[in-house]
Amino acid sequence: MVRTAARAIVGCDGATFVLRDGEQCFYADEDSIAPLWKGQRFPLTECISGWAMINGQVAAVPDIYADERIPHSAYRSTYVNSLLMTPVGQPKAIAAIGMYWADAHRPTPTEIEAAGELAGDAAQAIDAVGLASTPWAPNFRAAVPAE
Questions:
Q1: Minimal CA–CA distance to 10: which of 72, 75, 58?
Q2: Please, which residues bridge with residue 136 across strands?
Q3: Mean pLDDT of 3-12
Q4: Which of 7, 52, 106, 114 is the right S-S partner for 85, CB 3.0 to 4.6 Å?
Q5: Model confidence over 85-130: pLDDT tens digits?
């Protein structure tokens, strides 16, 4: 539901829901015009979703090839040129929502605010079902089996 809502509220070409799994990012689901990274894991320190979770900050990137936080090789085979990545959960992010555009796009303050509200709603939903209890990793691994 989160990825579909993200795509609808900002009008992007694709959206992903990424879960923090220890020191990795798990791309749990996507709604996109073409396949991206669903089911894959990447180190937190090597992807923009990990950066957003580690720093607890939104990453609004109008040109992915001009941003050093982006692992360019992971994007070359995709349509993605611009993105907005929003952390989910405070004070420690437990997930991130990624929104992607095929064309050059500078995320607007309204889009950033809407994505932040969706992230807040997602954090509340995760908390309500008990997936965010400490420690995070055992609950996450039980809920999302490794592929």
A1: 58
A2: none
A3: 94
A4: 52
A5: 999 998 889 999 999 999 999 999 999 999 999 999 999 888 887 6
Token representation of residue 23:
């020191």
Q: pTM for this one?
A: 0.87
Distance separating alpha carbons of residues 89 and 137, to the nearest angstrom: 15
Classify 26 as helix, strand or coil: strand
**Which amino acid appears at position 50 of this protein?**
G
Alpha carbon dihedral 45, 48, 54, 55, in 10-degree steps, equals 130
C-beta separation of 98 from 115 below 8 A: no
**Residue of 78, 72, 124 whose CA lies nearest to 101:** 78
* Measured distance CA(41)–CA(87) in Å, rounded: 17
Q: Three-state secondary structure along 40-72?
A: CEEEHHHCHHHHHHHHCCCEEECCHHHCCCCCH
* Phi, psi for 132 (deg, rounded to 5): -100, 10
Find out whether 136 and 18 touch, Cβ atoms under 8 Å: no
- Spell out the residues 6+ positions from residue 128 whose beta carbon is closer than 8 angstroms to its own: none
Give the H/E segment covering residue 87. strand 82-88
